[in-house]
Design a protein that fits this description.
Layout: H1 2-6, E1 17-19, E2 39-44, H2 51-57, E3 62-67, H3 72-81, E4 85-88, H4 94-119, H5 126-144, H6 149-152, H7 156-159, H8 162-171, H9 174-191, H10 195-202
Helix pairs in contact: 4-5, 8-10
Length: about 210
Amino acid sequence: MAMALADSVAIQSNTTVLHFSGARSSQALSALADHTSLLGSLHPVFAFADANSAQQQLSGHLCAFEGAFSARPVLQALAHHAGLHAFEMSAAHKARYHAAMSVSANFLVTLNYFAQQMLAPLALPNQLARQLVNQLMTQNLAQLEKHPPEAVLTGPIQRGDAQTIAIHWATLTREEQVVYRILAEETIKLAQLASEKREEILVNMPM
């Protein structure tokens, strides 16, 4: 697209060109550098699952921006008029920033689905399964607004309760065990358990 714009007559030296990609920096527009220096990017930190409702809910959310110094006033003004709270993001860190945002948004949904699938053998009504998982997720997300993750963490790993982890493990399929083990290892790091407690838990999750 940048190359196509570079071949058009629409881009003048005072034309601001920006994109809304989260993973790519304004360098994606480098084909236009000979035509204008006003290049940048805006990335609303918002999950656009439904375009219609997104228009009503976008205001008040954060928005990353980066680009040429001369383009920043326009980028900030656009974010402001959309009701977004803009913050500057280094172009060099844009991809890693977007990876973290993808983990926050996409993997949360995947984790929600994974937990609901774990409940499937119980033959609970679908609405009840969703409610069970969603209520706990919502509660923890509300707590994370006020406290750091290590202060919000609860459950058997946080307590160093290897016996309960072993009970969990025995109920899981092989495929579920793979995911559970990966998540448990990261949770053990967060819980900052003593080495003996850590090993006691891990030995109950043989792979």
